[in-house]
Amino acid sequence: MKSLQPADVADAIVEALQLGTVEVWVPKSAKRTNTLGVLLPRRLSEGLARTLKADQVLTSVDTNVRRGYELRASHSEPSLDAPPEKLQLTDGATRPE
Fold first, then answer.
1. How far is CA 10 from CA 3, 7, 26, in A?
2. Torsion from C-alpha of 7, 54, 63, 77, nearest 10 degrees
């Protein structure tokens, strides 16, 4: 399978929203591959996955690209609010027994 670009995923999401589709496959050919894998006996399905290098999908992550994405996401709207401060007991607080 080819490497996907963020625009590929965004286009698929927009299309799904326009059509009211609940299940989205990106790329669309992944649905056929998945269906084939489910129908094949396990040994053949695992062989197909190895041939397509599905077992290596998450092992070739570019950490610099991911870091840039995380930085952009942290500055986009809506952003997450800061976590609430942790409550601390004070001298006048009632402590559970």
1. 14, 5, 10
2. 40
Cβ atoms of 53 and 3 within 8 Å: the answer is no
**Tokens of residue 81, six digits:** 């609010």
For tokens 């998450």, the residue is 58
Provide the H-helix boundaries in the chain: 6-19, 29-39, 42-51, 63-74
Tokens of 95: 């402590």
- Collapsed DSSP state (helix, strand, coil) of residue 7: helix
d(CA 41, CA 71): 43
CA distance 62 to 81: 28
pTM for the whole thing? 0.49
Q: pLDDT tens digits, residue range 43-77? A: 998 888 888 887 777 777 788 888 888 888 888 77
Quote the distance between the C-alpha of residue 63 and its chain's center: 15
Instruction: Supply the DSSP symbol for 27.
Output: S
